[in-house]
Amino acid sequence: MKTPQVKNNTGPVAGSKTQVASKNSQQTKFRYPPGIGHVKRLKQKFLDNKTTKPEILELMLSYVIKGRDVKPLSKEIYRRSSGNLRKVFDTVEKEKIKGAGKETTAFFKLLKEYISIYNEEKFLNRKYKVKDQDDVIRYFKNLCHGANKEAVYVLFMDAKNKVAGNKLMGEGTLTQSLLYPREIINEALKKGALSLVVIHNHPSGDPSPSENDRKITKKLIFAVREMDIVLLDHIIVGSEGKGYYSFYEEGLIDKYNNDYKNLVNHITI
Q1: Paired sense of beta strands 230-237 and 195-201, if any
Q2: All domains of the chain in start order, with CATH
């Protein structure tokens, strides 16, 4: 009688540690994107008003760059911007930074445009007060920040003294051809404006008016007064001192208007 042979089963016993390990090795473990816990903590820190400027920049980048540690990139952008968040927009747009691609550039360009529209809507279609121009000055300081050439803008006010429009009138060097009264008057007539404010920037950072700035402002006042339009102010924005120069605040608008009146009074027919 033959003795039955028992097969030697070398496989893992069901439920054994070897079998469990074998199954686990065949399964792909889910992994969270790198830094996700850090970003969550950073968001909470922001909500608690405890973030620093570099951390705010890092958090902003986390919304456009997913699944990647953006801290090294944020530190590089912050360094190249000299620690000034206002310079970040130009840094991202104009400098080639490894890791900052088209999506990052588009994100900051969109954010800059949103901020500009938000600030502009603070004074558009509202009554203009020449004694309270903080919103206007802040808007144009941000708009002209980092510009390497002069730009002239004009705010047009309607019969109710509400801001009816804001238009770029020219770029380059402030000369008579850049700030030409005829063009401003034509635009004012199109918009039905009865008063206006001229704003331009000094890329040098010094908002102090040049002799040419004074001459052109006086010439413009004389020209618009002939059309029964009032120049309320000419504001020069820069980065030095208080960041702007107002012809109205310095008393020059009143002086030039008085010069116009005296000239008219001496005209004989």
Answers
A1: parallel
A2: 36-119 (no CATH), 124-265 (3.40.140.10)
Q: Which of 116, 81, 115 is nearest to 95 (CA)?
A: 81
Is pLDDT above 70 for 129?
yes
Instruction: Return the closest-CA partner of residue 147 out of 77, 83, 204, 81.
Output: 204
DSSP annotation of 56: H
Q: Which amino acid is at 37?
A: G
Task: Answer whether residue 55 shows pLDDT above 90.
Answer: yes
Label the pairing between strands 150-157 and 195-201.
antiparallel
Neighbours of 60 (CB within 10 A): 19
Query: What's the token pair of residue 144?
Result: 């002209």
Q: Distance of CA 109 to CAs 105, 123, 180, Å?
A: 6, 22, 31
First to last CA, the chain: 149
CA–chain centroid gap for 222, Å, is 34
* Bridge partner list, 154: 167, 198
Least confident of 105-109, 121-125, 159-163, 232-236: 121-125
For residue 113, the SS3 value is helix
Alpha-carbon gap, residue 247 to 233, rounded angstroms: 6
- pTM for the predicted model, two decimal places: 0.68
Say how far apart CA 38 and CA 29 lie, in whole Å: 21
